[in-house]
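MODEL INPUT / OUTPUT PAIR
PAIR INDEX: 1
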Amino acid sequence: MKSNTLLETYTTLLSWNLARTKCFVGMILGMVSSGSVQQHKTAIGFSGSATQASGCARIRDFLKNFTFNFADYAKAVVTISQLNGPFDLVIDRTNWKFGRTNINLLVLAVVIKNQFAIPLFWKALPKQGNSNADERIDLVNQFITTFGIEQIGSLMGDREFIGKVWMDFLIHKNIPFFIRTKGNRLMEWKEYQFHLKSFFEHLKTGQKRCVEYALDGHLLYFAGTRSTDGDLVIIMSNQNQGAKILNIYRKRWTIELMFKHCKNNGFNLEDTHLIHLDRIEKLLAVVGSALLLCFKAGEKEEKKKPTPHKKTVNTPAFSTFRRGFDYVRRLLFRARQKALKLLASFIPTPQNRSSSL
C-alpha cells in the first residue's frame, strides 16, 4: 500500500508485525469498499500489485494462522473512540445459520456518546441458544484484565442475562448493572409468592414506578414503566437511582443498532461462509474496526452538514454510521489517498493517547 497513511497509523496502535497489520487494514478497507465480509469482495482492499487471488490467500492465512490478541484490538477501539471511562457496557447475543452450522456470538460492547456501540470482547459459542453464567463472566473478566474493574460505569443486558450465579458475580464485584427482567419472575413475601409484575401492572403508558426488594440475599432496585406498545418494561439494578435506571438502560438499544450495521445495513456479516468459530471471532474484529471508522467519519460529516432530525438514541446512530459509511466508500473509489488520510486522522497520535491505555 503505497503511502498508506492509515497503515502507518495503525502500526503505532497495534503490537503486531507489519504483515499482519497490513492485512488487517486491507480487510477493513475492503469491507468498507464492498459492504461485505466475503473474502473475494474484501480482497479489493489490497491495493498495488496484489491480485484478488493473493488478497484472498492473505485473508485466509490471517484468519487461520494469526494468534489474535483481542486486548490489543479492544485498546485500539478505546483509543480511536477517545473514551476516558468509566465505560457503559452492553452484553448481548446475535446468531444466524450457515448451512448446518449455527453461529452464535456473545458480545460485550462499549457505548459511544450514547449513540452507538462497538464490540470489545466476544465469544463464538459452540452451541445454540442462551449463554451461561461462566461464558458471560469470562467476557467481563477479559474487560477487567485489560482495563480494570473501575472502568465499568454500567453494564446493561436484556432478559436473557439473569441467573443467580451471574448476579452474584456482578454484585460481589460491585459492577453497576441495569438488566431487564421478566415480569413473571416469582417473588416471595413471608409464606406468599407473587409475580414481579404485580408491582407495576397498574402503570399506564409512560408512567414509572421504582421499588426495592431483597432477592437471593441482595437488596436490588426495580424500575418499571409501560411502553407505547403496552408492554411492561422492568429493569433490575444494584444501583439506587430511581427512575434514572430506565434512562440508563435505554442505551442498551445501541447494541441492537450495532448488530444491524454488522449485518444487513452495513457489512453483511451473515454472508460469511466461515464455519470455524475462531476465524469468525477474528473476522468480527475487522468488522468492529470498520464500524468505528465509519461512525467517526459520519460524525465529521455531520459537523459539516448537521442532521435536521432531533437527536435521540433511535435516530442519530443509524444516520451517523450510514453517512460515514457511504462517504468513505465514495472516497475510496474516487480519491483513495484522501480516504486513507481521513481514516488515519481519527487515530490519535501516541503522544495524545490516554495514559490509562
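PAIR INDEX: 2
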Amino acid sequence: MNVATVARVDLRQAIVLDQEGNEIACRLRARFMDRSKRLRGALVAGDEVEWDTDAQDTPVVEEILPRRNFFRRRAAGLPPREQVLAANLDRVLLVASLAEPALKEGLIDRVSVAAEIAEVPFALALSKTDLAEPGAAEDTARRYTDIGYPVHALSAKQGTGVPEIYATLQGKRTLVIGHSGVGKSTLLNAFEPSLGLRIGAVNPVTGRGRQTTTAALLCRLKDGTEIVDTPGFRAFAPWGVSPEEIVMSFRELAEASTRCRFPRCSHKNEPGCGVLEAVESGRATRERYESFLRLREEMAEEVEA
C-alpha cells in the first residue's frame, strides 16, 4: 500500500499527494459512500489514505487512516446536517476584512467556537488595514488577544504583515477560511505567487478547470507548508455540540460558567451567574456574550424545528 494525503475530492474520485508532492487521481471504493452514493465527509482534504492500483492499473483509495482531528460546520440548507471541511489540521486561520466588506465579529466568534469544538488552534487575520479607520485593527485585535487568540493585521496588497503571518504557518497544515471578498485569495497568492495558479489549475481527472467555490483544496508549498483553501461562504454555524453546551466553546465564558449557582443556568438573569459576573467585571466582553446568546438561540430553534 502507498500512503498519500488527500488534496481534493471530486465527485467519486480523489486527488492525492504522494510524499514527493506528485498528484495522483484515485478512484474511490463504493464502501466509502452512503446510499445516495455521496461521501458526506467520509473523505476530505487533509485525510491520509492508503492507495493501490487495481487490475486495470488504476489508482484506487483502499483505506482512510484515522484522523487526529477534523473541522466541520453546519451545512447550508435544510434539514440541518454536518459538513466536514478538512482533517488533520494544525491551525484554523480566519481571514476577516476590516473594511469592504465590513468586519463581522459574529463570524469570528462562530469560527473560533468551531475550532474549539475541533480542538484545533485558532488564529485571526485582519485584512485590508489600508482601508480601515485608524486604530480599528488595534481595537479589534485586542478583544481577541485578550482571550488568547493570535491576531495578525495585514494588507496583502501592500505586503505588510504577510511575512509575519506566514512565519506562524510555516511547516504546518492550516485551514484558511473567510467570507467572499475579504482578501483570502490575495493573501494566499502573497504566500507564494504560484499558489493562485495551482488553486485554479486543470483537474487531472476531468480535464477541466477546478471550481474552487465548491470544495476545500490542499496545496503543498515549496517549503512543505500546507494550506487548505476553502470556498467563500455567506453564513457559518458550528456543528457538534448542543445549545446547552455551546458556552463551553467560548473560551473566556467556559470557566466562568462553572461558577454559576444553578446547574441549568441560562446565563441571562439568574442570581449567582458566573457568566454575567464575568461580563460585568470586564473579564469577558459584552459583544462576545451577546454573540454567544444569539448563537445559542439559533441552535435551539434548529433543534425545535
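PAIR 2 NOTE: DSSP finds eight helices and 13 strands in the chain.
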